[in-house]
Amino acid sequence: MFFNSLAFAIFLPIVFFLYWFVFNKNKSTQNALLIVASYYFYSCWDWRFLFLLVFSTFLDYFTGIQIEKSNSEKSRKFWFWLSILVNLGFLGIFKYYNFFANSFAEMFTAFGFKASPILLNVILPVGISFYTFHGLSYVIDIYYKRIKAEYNFIDYSLFVSYFPLLVAGPIERATHLLPQVKVKREFNYETAKEGIYQIIWGLVKKVVIADTCAVYANAIFDNYPSMNSFSLILGAIYFAFQIYGDFSGYSDIALGVSKLFGLDLLRNFNYPYFSRDIAEFWRRWHISLSSWFRDYLYIPLGGSKGGLWMKIRNTFIIFIVSGFWHGANWTYIVWGFINAVYFLPLLLSNSNRNNIDSVVLKWNLDSIRVLFSILTTFLLTCVAWVFFRAKTITDAVLYLKRIFTTRDFAFQYLDNERYNFELLLMIGVFVLVEWNNRMKVEPISGKKSMLKMALAILAIIAFGTYSDYKEFIYFQF
Amino acid sequence: MKKFLLYIFKILIVTILVAVLLDGLYTYVFMQSKNRGKIEAVVNSKKEKYDVVILGSSRANNHFVSQMFEEKGLKTFNYGMSGGHLFEASLMLKLMIERKYEIKNVILEADLNLSNDQESEGVAAKFLPYIHCSNAIKEHFLTEENFNELYYIPFYRYIKFDSKIGFREVYKIAENEKTNALDNLGFYPLEKHKNGNMKNNIVNLNPLPHNKYYEEIKHICKKNNINFIAVMTPMCENVVGMNYFDKVKKAYPEIHNYENVVVENKYFSSCGHMTSEGARLFTGRIINDFFKK
């Protein structure tokens, strides 16, 4: 059941009605309903993986309590490592086992040994990377005594399995979401209205921008050996907007849906393509994952406290692990590595926190410099996205090489009967709308919101791509 | 909560209004389309006179050279549609009758397409903009599973088939961008391809004993005094399951078997589609057999 499906359009009003009109007696009934709805939502993909989700939830719930109850450090450590290893074990088996088995086999073959790895014929449970990280953060926070263990299983289950964030985040923190599920939610008109704005804008991003860009980006990436420089550049730009529209669109819908139930989720995107450097980009892109790695990997590794080499090492580790989190493929690892390389000059010059404030442009030379830095950052991310999108590293390298070797900048007719430049106007309008509303969460709220809502609905209906339907990219992670 | 429900109601009203307005706008634009495709050309025309009208799939579109009929003094148009099934061929004929066309002969390519009586979504979608303006189209889709959505939900059909009749197509019509569908009097010539697939396996294909739309076309022709000629058109040499054509002949004895008229691979662009050279040989034979004065 996808957020942009008819099934969800039926599911959501039913749950909304039951939540506010039938199960609104107290927080327990509200939570119980949301849990049932969440499990139903999840089972629509594959009910068998529901057992995995429930097991993972129970494991972290149980180990969390055991860590808190333990009198000795040895016992605390035991329960802590049990949770970490089992969680990562599931992730390893379902997501990474085949990758490692194949990689080792290839390595042995390269050294002249014959190796035929035993591969697992399993499909990746949807959302496993997200709910595993929910559980991990919870257990780590208890271990480091940042939070208390949750003794109410329903409340804890809702924190892990709450359907808006279950399959593609944002990756929530117990410190943020658990206190909200511990109290009865009262309906708030303004919050619910904000939710609707976010849902509508998320749909614009998904069906108008992402799915349309996907049609063009796929036609270019899948046929890159016959594409000229201009098409290849456009292909990278289209993919950049596809993945942004897809993932931030999903996050917007998730946050909007959650607001309808009176629960506030962590913001995941903050106009990342208006960043002035890579460090700022990573403070604005997939914020919940970046901050997760910062808090649970980078800082425990020593963060930026050690010497220069320590800082560099930690930076590369966090980016490479972040890349690997996305998928079991070398392309994601290289994507992470490239981002680390981009980040390095900022780290070495101690300027990685230069651009904290929002971008404000005035009619002066400094604004030109700012625009130039935004454009440069965007182009750098586009280069990295080529590795993210390509099937193999070789494909990515050849793709980038062709940009510089073909030197042909003519408009090409793509094999899906579209001209490669057709989308630029739509993207241009989208960028302008986002730019003018970059101080807000979404562009619909504010003055003349009903008119803006009508225009957004018009865009969804008239310009959306439906027949060439695309799943949300981040569901596969 | 009451305020919120009222707000949601307003959004629903806005959505319906937008859908109705867009539906009207798109339909209006499609009603102006005359040079984008065969369906649009027929819908937006009336009282044409033809000696020969050719119907069928791409195996009609690529195989009947309309000019050769014209050279014989027969006013002809090839309305074969690539990817089309008999569902669309039948509807095309109904539309022509509705538009008061005067037709003397209908040549129907009836061979592989006899194996199903389903619509071909991609081609059938192109009729949908006119579903409210043509009884023939409305009636034809009436038995389809999603008729109610397509007919009653404003703009639904444009969303469902956005790649065929969506924004891009509307934009191209508004821009008056022409396609080659109507060139060569509807005949689309193919060239010899180096990598053309010269193998085909039709072992699992079986003609339906009473193909609904084939019978419909036959019936329309009879009712309107149109001479009905149904033919099977050629396939390349390497086809597994050639007895399919015998099965067709057995089920529909009135269909003329021209499968063997052109066989050499050099006349084929791919196994089921002849080159323009092969099409000329084949068309010559058809003219000779049916229109020799």
Calculate the terminal CA-CA distance of chain B, rounded to whole Å. 81 Å
Helix content of chain A: 55-70%
Strand order of the largest sheet of chain B: 2-1-3-5-7
Poorly predicted ranges of chain B:
none
Quick overview:
The complex is a heterodimer of chains A (477) and B (293). Chain A has 477 residues and is mainly α. Chain A has 18 helices and no strands.
3D architecture notes:
The complex is a heterodimer of chains A (about 475) and B (about 290). The model of chain A has no long low-confidence stretch (mean pLDDT about 90). Chain A has 18 helices and no strands. Chain A has helices at about 5-20, 25-45, 50-70, 75-110, 130-145, 155-160, 165, 175-180, 190-220, 230-260, 280-285, 285-300, 310-325, 330-350, 365-390, 395-405, 425-435, 450-465. In chain A, about 70% of the residues lie in helices and about 0% in strands. Chain B is an alpha/beta fold and about 290 residues long. Chain B is about 45% helix and about 10% strand. In chain B, helix 5 (about 85-100) runs parallel beside helix 12 (about 210-225). A 5-stranded parallel β-sheet of chain B has the order 2-1-3-5-7. In chain B, strands 4-6 form a two-stranded parallel ribbon. A two-stranded antiparallel ribbon of chain B has the order 8-9. Chain B has 14 helices and 9 strands. The chains are: A mainly alpha (about 475), B alpha/beta (about 290). The interface of A and B includes residues 187, 422 and 468 of A.
What's the structural blueprint in terms of helices and strands?
The complex is a heterodimer of chains A (477) and B (293).
Chain A: H1 6-22, H2 27-46, H3 49-69, H4 73-110, H5 128-143, H6 153-161, H7 163-166, H8 174-181, H9 189-221, H10 229-260, H11 278-284, H12 287-298, H13 308-326, H14 330-348, H15 365-389, H16 393-406, H17 424-436, H18 449-463
Chain B: H1 2-31, H2 38-43, E1 49-55, H3 58-61, H4 66-71, E2 76-78, H5 86-98, E3 102-109, H6 121-124, H7 135-141, H8 147-152, H9 156-160, H10 162-165, H11 167-174, E4 200-201, H12 212-223, E5 227-232, E6 239-240, H13 243-251, E7 256-257, E8 268-270, E9 273-274, H14 276-290
Parallel strand pairs in B: 1-2, 1-3, 3-5, 4-6, 5-7
Antiparallel strand pairs in B: 8-9
Helix pairs in contact in B: 5-7, 5-12
